[in-house]
Amino acid sequence: MKITRPPNSIVGIAGFVALAAACQEPQTEPDGIEARDGDLALGGTVGRFETRAMTMLDGTARIVHYLIEGNDEYEIVLPDGMEIPRDAVVRAYGDANDDGAIEVDSFDIIQLPPARLIDPDPYAPRRIATILLTWEGGGGIDNGVAEQDMYTGERSTNVFYGENSYGRETMAGRVFGPYTIDQPAACNSTGIANAALQVFAERGHREDDWDQIMYYFPGLSCGWAGLASVGSVEFPAKNSWYNGSFGCVVRNQELGHNYGMGHSHAYSCPEGVVLDAEECSHIEYGDPYDPMGGGCRHINAVQKGFMGWLEGCNYVNASQAGVYNVAPLELPCNGTQALRFPTTDGRWYYLEYRQPIGEFDTSLSGGVIAHVAGDINNFGPSPYILDLGLGGLMQEGDSFTDPNGGITFTVTEDNGTHAVIQVDYPEGAEQSAPTCIDGTEPEMAGGAVGSLDCADEPYPGDSEPPTVTITAPADGDVFAPGSDFLITAEPEDDRAVIELELYINGEPQFKLYEPPWEWDVTNIPEGVYEFGVVARDSRFWAPSQAVTVDVGIVEDPTDTDSGDETTGNTTDSGTDGPSDTTGVPEPEDDDTDSGSGSGGDTSAAADGGGCRTGGTGAPLSALLLLSFGWIRRRR
Hints:
Elements: H1 18-22, E1 45-56, E2 61-69, E3 72-77, E4 89-96, E5 102-111, E6 126-134, H2 143-152, H3 157-164, E7 171-180, H4 189-202, E8 212-217, E9 224-229, E10 239-243, H5 248-258, E11 265-268, E12 281-283, H6 301-307, E13 315-317, E14 322-326, E15 338-342, E16 348-354, E17 367-373, E18 384-385, E19 399-401, E20 408-414, E21 419-424, E22 435-436, E23 444-445, E24 448-449, E25 467-472, E26 478-479, E27 485-492, E28 499-504, E29 507-512, E30 518-521, E31 527-536, E32 541-543, E33 547-551, H7 603-606, H8 620-623, E34 631-633
């Protein structure tokens, strides 16, 4: 992993391709899966397959499989070894158990999941819509609080993932609502999401503009505080639900499940026993530091490796007795931030070094933390923190020996800048030269294995707003009625420009999420128009200067009889230099949004969610929703 710092360049968002993928022709069963003989309309339960992780109120967790059809969700139980492709539409056969779940004994694939046409950059900004819901007497949280919690606050989810990932992750989002819906008769997460999306669409917003959607609602008797569909790092699952709970742990944990992270556990062991899966009891959310457990400090080194935030020589395989360096987990480093070596039960020990630095570990006592887990490439890693040292933090002089006659590791130095760890193998154990996790040879520093090449500070939260300039038309330009032209804008930001929104005469009209930052004007009618653009990065917004154009009857320069007489609306408005106004009012919270803010983004929805090819304009049904039907986003 390279040390990452904010780039001094404009960064656009990679396009989201889910809508395009959904437009493909239905696919037949893959090789090796045979359809059941006979009429598939007879028997079985049909739905789109999805796996969800539940954070239960009693401190336990559940992984639940569903078939989803409309507002109906059917819980299913899969036997060991049976796997169904995520998002595939299937017909499942089996009998209901005492809890009402279907015990699946076989299934048919009706339609494979959409094949993604383009592999998106896994580190493109994560576009997240946070939708707040309420109902009569329901209460809940307001838009401003949720905006601070998710995106703009110093300890927001956006800042959390940025610091934890060393700048690789940006949570680029908006908060919508609160929207009032009918109080659900039952804790049906799919029905709640569908009700939210109906209001979302009525307000002029498009579901397909967002990679992930979070649904917050007042507390219901669900038995769980948070629920999330389980996805992967490159292709996150879309949905997560928040049942009256929106604290730091549940927000960051449910999004982590969307990326495929599992829970971070602990063992509760009898006195004198440290690591014995049979004698020690399992604590589901036992890691007191990681939000995938029960805390809101840095995510542990195992989960970071799964996410791809630590890589290469950030991990060193301590496969030989010797002395090793470990740099702080909180810093962006090219050097070593985790050691690993085998346990005697087929897993790995992972050692990381923590210091009280950064926004989230600032009050943490420093020390070395040990986890036990499988390989970091395993899907849904579920590491166990070991109760070593004080509160799981080993100090200088602390030592541990694998209870089954395995490796011993000792913290020989705690320098504040790095820890030095002595690793000893039992006599006769197989050993080999240390390697980085990518197979390369680690560097040495101070006579110990492991580079200490790190940044001085953790990756900071975004502190600079974007800027944006309308580059065409120019202020004071005059056009003849019926003219065609482009409105173009040029944004800049030290991190990433997330969206541009065009305003006309102070009213929001069209949003763009990626370059080209252009809007088509076709057959413009007579009048005076003021254009403005608002740019957003992950935390801030900023307006452009206003540009005023006059659309009237342009005089023919060869007409010598025109004199000083003016015609049409060719007035002096906007011709005396740049306007002192921005052309846009301060954007309102989306709980008061009438829907005009993304009217130009309704083209796909106005097509019935269907798929079109060719053409550059929004359909007529979408344009009728707009105040200015002569302008459209450029595609």
